[in-house]
Amino acid sequence: MPLQRSSPWPPACVYKGGLGARSHARMDAKKLGVMAVLAGVAVAVVPWLLPTGPNANLDAARFLEAGSLAVGAAVVFAGGLLTALTPCVYPLIPITVSVFGARKTEGRGRALLLTSSYIVGMGVVFSALGVLAAKTGQAFGSMLGHPAVVTGLAVFLLLLATSMFGAFELALPSSFQTKLNAVGGAGVAGAFLMGSVSGFLAAPCTGPVLTGLLAFVAKSANTTLGASLLFVYALGIGVPFFLIGVFTVRLPRGGVWMEWVKSVLGIMLVALAFSYLKDAFPWARDVVKGLGLHVGRVPGAVIAALLVAVGVALGAVHRSFKEGAREFSFKALGVALVVAALVLRGGALDGGPVGTLWVSLGLAEPARAPAWQWHHVMPAKQATFSPEAFDQVLAQAKAEGRPVLIDFFADWCAACKELDRDTYPAQQVISESDEGRFLNIKIDATNSEDSLDALLERFGVEGLPTVAFISPEGKVLTQPRVTGFLAPSPFATEMKKARCTDANAC
């Protein structure tokens, strides 16, 4: 698609003081201060308020296997809707706003058509990936973890963000636009394309609904039914997108504030691109994770909030890249600070309550409460998985009469991070692990390799996260088993079931 220079500011952006873009620099200092403070507070607080998404109790497979396809489809739809509200998918909503809310005035019918095309594009990708995952037996989302694929998606997001900042407009060739207009317009095709990209970006957000669904598809070998159910899952994810896409047409169109909205969307898209790149490249992931561990969860939120407030005050939102070198420099610095703050905020979410930096400086006391312990993490960084070493660990646990907890995770898996952040550090889970003398093993399935794929097949892992248990007698248990996020209290109950077998009454 050729890049065309954006058109001059429309008449709607003209104010008594001159062009709206030039009024950015003269924005009232009090209003700017309030906006900066609110932005900082939002960055600090909102990530803690977002839900964790579907948990392991929302299992569609048991309804599907019992022949209750309608109930199973309803559970699949509900799972998609809950997934849309998680931090993994929520950042994609600005893409919808950028396509349908920050462009040009559309009628309600036109917005309905564009949004429907967007969601259908997302659904087609989910259906195709679901069938492929069922055919190949690979964990859903791992096929999208290749750095080349993620880099391409990140570049697309950066291009879209640059467009939001007003550098250019994305447009199809005029000859192709003419042909598309005859069948509904280039906007419909563009919305479908955007939905497809969003489908790829949302695909790694696996949950128990998808895990059970893929298991059902694999057993039934009915790819048509599987594709249809995955399309239903995509429709559930698409509900917030649909509501925003249709109802944003009621927003007032005139005013320079619309350019501020586009700046906010551009910043969020840049941060999202960096987030995907971080998960694709181990060195970047380690840097962000290490930073989060150093600053800690609460201090990281405070630092991120301060950086956002400074960035907004400098002009990340209200200044323009098109008003000279000075305006460009202030806005660029502001955008950089806000993006850095968002990346830090994400890393701090996975950090401990007390950052190691503050402990080393003598400003905080190290945590004294019992902590969750991973006895083995396999494979080690930059090493290949060793089935022999794994079996040796299991044999030792059996000889000692210890139950085993095996957490299968990947760095691209959002629910895996939720387990690490919210469930394992909980006191009741730690107490159950200590009381039951659990041997805790973490299996890193981020990078696919033959020995790891064989292990996933051996334990029947069809989606991540999956937490499998082995009894003190060395028997691999099909129940209990955790697929997806599970809150601390029910998770501790599942652990107790694993150690309290018929041979080991509790």
Automatic annotation (TrEMBL):
The record describes its membrane topology as: Multi-pass membrane protein
List where the protein spans the membrane: 32-50, 70-90, 111-134, 146-168, 180-203, 223-248, 260-277, 297-316, 328-348
Subcellular localization is given as:
Cell membrane
* Statement: the UniProt record of this protein carries the keyword Cell membrane: yes
One annotated GO biological process: cytochrome complex assembly
Query: Which GO MF term does the entry hold, naming one?
Result: protein-disulfide reductase activity
The keyword Lyase is annotated on this UniProt entry: no
Example of a GO cellular component annotation carried by this entry: plasma membrane
Record Gene3D superfamilies: Glutaredoxin
Q: Locate the Thioredoxin domain: which residues? A: 363-500
- Alphabetical keyword list: Cell membrane, Cytochrome c-type biogenesis, Membrane, Redox-active center, Transmembrane, Transmembrane helix
Under which name does UniProt file this protein?
Answer: Thiol:disulfide interchange protein DsbD
Q: Which organism is it from?
A: Myxococcus xanthus (strain DK1622)
**What's the source species' lineage?**
Bacteria, Pseudomonadati, Myxococcota, Myxococcia, Myxococcales
Gene symbol? dbsD
